[in-house]
Write a structure and sequence with these properties.
The protein has 117 residues and is mainly α. Helices cover 71% and strands 0% of the residues.
Length: 117
């Protein structure tokens, strides 16, 4: 199996990994595995050189199609992470407002500003 075959098998593995149900508990593990697979796949892609046989061309087309699906799923994963980060940030702000309810108020009320010099 040449480099294209190895890249194809790694891409299939990435697709299978992203087809799993991703929860907040297993998300970090899946991202780590994806990162490792991406690094291996990138190193294998460096060695791919033309000309290609008909079989290799077919595998390349399948890889491109799988890459689009993987990209969409990774975008969904990224949006899920962004959503969780926003909710954590909102929770922190709410907790801070309970501890110090007047901490975020910036007011110049009761302050005299002299306009003449």
């Amino acid at each position: 199996m040449g480099n294209i075959g190895e890249v194809y098998s790694i891409t299939l593995e990435m697709g299978a990994l992203l087809k799993q149900e991703i929860t907040s508990e297993n998300r970090e593990k899946i991202i780590k595995q994806l990162s490792d697979l991406l690094q291996v796949r990138a190193s294998k892609m460096i060695g791919i050189k033309a000309p290609f046989t008909a079989h290799e061309q077919e595998m390349g087309d399948k890889i491109i199609q799988l890459n689009e699906e993987i990209s969409d799923k990774m975008t969904d994963l990224f949006n899920m992470i962004k959503s969780d980060m926003r909710s954590v940030k909102k929770r922190r702000k709410t907790n801070r407002s309970y501890v110090n309810p007047y901490g975020d108020i910036k007011s110049t009320d009761g302050m005299f500003l002299d306009s003449k010099q």
